[in-house]
Amino acid sequence: MSEGISLEELQLATRNHGLPLEALQWDVTPVGLHYLLTHYDIPAVDAGAWRLHVDGLVERTVALSLEEIRARPAVELAVTMECAGNGRAHVEPHVVSQPWLLEAVGTARWRGTPVGPLLEEAGLGEGASDVLFTGLDRGVEGGEEQDYARSLPLSELLEGDALLAYEINGVPLPPQHGFPLRLLVPGWYGMTSVKWLARITVLDGPFDGYQMRHSYRIRMDEDEEGEPLSRMQPRALMVPPGLPDFGTRARIVRAGPCEIRGRAWSGEAEIAGVEVSTDGGETWAHAELVDTSLGRWAWRSWRFQWDAQPGEHEVCCRASDAAGNVQPLAPPWNLGGYRNNAVQRVPVTVTA
Questions:
Q1: What does the DSSP assignment read for 23-64?
Q2: What domains appear along the chain, each with residue ranges and CATH number?
Q3: Is the pTM of this model over 0.85?
Q4: Cα 43 to the chain's mean position, in Å?
């Protein structure tokens, strides 16, 4: 990076945390290792007094307790979630925000009740087209005091797999993951899955709040309206091979057979392939995809057999999906540092 990390960015980095890349070895990420991004303060919620309100363009307003939500038909899904800013620290010029490297990802088993049937039971009014999800976390951003809130097209909720989730990996949501209830939208970047959910409002158009109007849009300058972010782009990450150098995190590998393993995912379509390069992206070879039976919305496991020869190497991996999307070699730039899915590059010293 050409610029240092500011004190403000350091404060963000200490509040949030990423997945240590060696934890990619677990099919399902342990709760304490799953990435976290918290926009404002973590609210302390009294589960007994809490209610989920459903209102707006509906025939019947609803207020449900946590017990009533847990009594509804339940679904469990393994879902890979990634922050839209993952990789931001690698883009140039430097973008001032949460300085993610590559670790803003995790895969968990989420249990909850589908959103679509609840909306249909409330009775969708004429002209209903979008649904607003509002959390209990509140702060100031862009000079606006606000609850964290985002909307989704109604069709995504009626036809997709979105959940109102109350468990992660078999336990109630911990406070940092949105206790007592959060939205979970498989395939979309993490900003969509509103935590500490308090209200669902059916609208006749997209929400025009700050998190939709300004944040999470691909813009090249401040005057652009920009393209809203939605589904995750393909990405492959490897478990860094060998041993780490403490200061640089560069890797030391002994010469000879070396298995490189990792995970790949895409919100657009199924993963079609993963390639590995051991010479910085000059040449590529296909990795073997491994079926971990986690389902469509979870990452895919892969492995590659490398005959490591003594010397200095740069090991890279890249994924492609069934829709034809392929990871770029260089980080793309935009004003927010979003959607940077450039290939991972790991410096490796192979010793004799």
A1: GGGSSS--GGGS-B--SSPPP---TTT--EEEEESBSS-EEE
A2: 7-228 (3.90.420.10), 235-351 (2.60.40.650)
A3: yes
A4: 21
